[in-house]
Design a protein that fits this description.
By secondary structure, the chain is an all-alpha fold. The chain has one domain. It has 7 helices and no strands. The protein has helices at 2-26, 28-38, 46-65, 69-86, 88-92, 112-124, 133-140. Helix 1 (2-26) runs antiparallel to helix 3 (46-65) and helix 1 (2-26) crosses helix 6 (112-124). The longest helix is centred in the first third of the chain and has 25 residues, at 2-26. It starts with a helix and ends with a helix.
Length: 141
């Protein structure tokens, strides 16, 4: 059961990376708008969108497959945890009670905490991820 749950966790976090990567690569104006609005324009340069987007989509695919996990899982964690930390106000005050207000609050960002923790869980349970492709190939060799 644990192996299947880790597979589903890989699939869902990897899919998120693919979706946002494709948005950056294929709809850079959307990614720039999000960066400007929520991340202080940190990655708003138009020239960055396609390369970062394709790299993020590739990272998501590698996560889903479960290959190069020693490198891929920490990279995924950096992307997802950094993304959550950048919107910390929305995570600490999702209801707009003290840091935000009714106009600026965004409850839909709160699941970013779950996604960030999921990336860390994949690192912590890497050795128990029996359905990762690199583990399957190692068993066959």
């Amino acid at each position: 059961m644990k192996a299947w749950l880790l597979l589903f966790l890989r699939a869902s976090t990897g899919a998120l990376l693919i979706i946002w990567g494709l948005i950056k690569a294929r709809a850079p104006e959307t990614a720039i708008h999000v960066s400007d609005k929520y991340y202080d324009g940190l990655l708003s340069a138009a020239a960055l969108q396609a390369p970062l987007g394709w790299a993020q989509a590739l990272l998501g695919l590698l996560v889903i497959l479960g290959v190069f996990r020693r490198i891929v899982y920490p990279l995924q964690a950096i992307v997802l945890v950094a993304g959550a930390l950048a919107i910390w106000k929305y995570l600490v005050d999702p209801l707009g009670l003290y840091l935000l207000n009714a106009e600026t609050r965004q409850v839909l960002f709160f699941p970013s905490t779950t996604v960030a923790v999921a990336a860390l869980i994949l690192i912590a349970f890497k050795e128990e991820d029996a359905l990762a492709l690199d583990r399957v190939l190692a068993r066959r060799a």
